Amino acid sequence: RLFLVDFSLLSGLPTGHILGCPQFVTAPLCLLWLSPQRHLLPIAIQLSQHPGPGSPIFLPGGPGWSLAKLWVRGCHFVLHEMVT
C-alpha cells in the first residue's frame, strides 16, 4: 500500500529561459500511501535523487510542504509532456 514515484528521468534535464529568466526543474521522489478508503495520499517528498543535508524530506503539514507538492505537480507535467 506504499508507492514511490521516482522522477529520475528529469535528473540533469537542460532547461531554457522565458523572457530572459532561467527555468528550473528537479527530479523528486514522492512517497504515496493508499488509504483504506482507497485514496492515494502523499506522505513524504524529497526534491532530489540524492539524500543528505542539502535535500530535506518534506512531510504533510510541515514547513515547505505546499511548495514541495507544487514542485512534484510541475515535474509530473514535465515528465508527461516529455514521454507522451
From TrEMBL:
Signal peptide span: none
GO function term, MF aspect, one: isomerase activity
Keywords: Dioxygenase, Isomerase, Metal-binding, Oxidoreductase
InterPro entries: LipOase, LipOase_C, LipOase_C_sf
PROSITE patterns with a match to the protein in the record: LIPOXYGENASE_3
The organism's place on the tree of life at top rank: Eukaryota
GO BP terms in the entry: lipid oxidation
Residue ranges constituting the Lipoxygenase domain according to the UniProt record: 1-84
Gene3D superfamilies according to UniProt: 3.10.450.60
Listed PANTHER family: LIPOXYGENASE (PTHR11771)
Protein name stated in the entry: LOXE3 isomerase
Natural source organism: Certhia familiaris
Lineage of producing organism: Eukaryota, Metazoa, Chordata, Craniata, Vertebrata
